[in-house]
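BUG: 3D viewer hangs when loading the predicted structure for this chain

Environment: internal workstation, default settings.
Expected: structure renders.
Actual: progress bar stalls at 90%.

Input used:
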Amino acid sequence: MERLRHYYYFDERNDDFANDGIKGSPTPADYEYFPKNILYRTLKPIVYYVYMVLVALLVKPLSRLKRVHNVGVLRKVENRRKGYFVFGNHTNAFADALLHPVVAFPRSVYIVANPDAISIPGLKTFLRMLGTVPVPYAKSTYVKYMNAIKRMYDHGHPIVVYPEAHIWPKYNAVRDFPDASFKLPVRLGAPCFAKSTVYHKDSRGHTYAEVWYDGPFYPDATLPEKKAQKELRDRIYAKICERCKDSELDCRYTYEKVDDPQEVRTEIEIV
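C-alpha cells produced before the viewer hung:
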C-alpha cells in the first residue's frame, strides 16, 4: 500500500502544505533573539552541538538525501570572520532544517523560519537553541529582527533563508519569491550562496534528493539598494532554477493549480 498526496494550490507565494497542524501566532514584540538568561546561554551550545552530532547520522536517511555537491564553495568568502547567507528552495522538511548546520559545522547556523516554528508546545526554547529565527510580521518588530540578523552575521554565523516561505514537499520546480529577504545582504555587502534541492527518481518512481551549493554571489554595490536587492535575487533565483531544471516529481505526489482560493487543499489517497 502507498499513500498518494495530491496538492491543489492557488497562490504559490502563500499556500502552505506543511500540514503540521500547528496554529502559530505572530512573533511577539518582546521576543528575545538573544536571551540573557544564564542557564539558557550555558545550555545553548551544549544542546546545539550534541544535537548536531545526532543529526549528522540521521539527515541523509530521513530526507532521502543521496549527495551534497560543491560544499567547497562555502570557503570562498572574502572575510571568514563574518557569516554568510544561504538561499534555497523549500521542499524537504528534514534536509532544509538539518543539512546546512551539518555542512557548516563547527559554525553554528541560524535558520530564518515562519513563527509557527516557535509555536510548537514544549519545543519553543529547544528550537531557539538550535538556531530558529522567527520572521516578524509587524513593522514594530522588524528593526529588532534586522539588528539580530546583522549581529549573527557579524559574529560569523551562516544564516539560512527559504524565500519561498512555505514548504511544498518534494516539489520539483522553483516557486517565484520576492526580493525582500535580500535587503540585509545588500546593506551588509554580504556573500550569498544558492542551495538547490534537486530530485531524481529511482526504479520505483520514488525520488531521492541531491543538494547543490553555488556561489558566492555578492551584491552589486554600484546599484541603488532596491535595484541591488532585485538583481541579487534574480541571480540566485536563476541559479536555483538552472540546477532544478531536470528535477523530477515523485510518483506519489501531484500538484495542480486551482482557480479559486477556497479550493486549496491536500488530498491523501491510499492505493
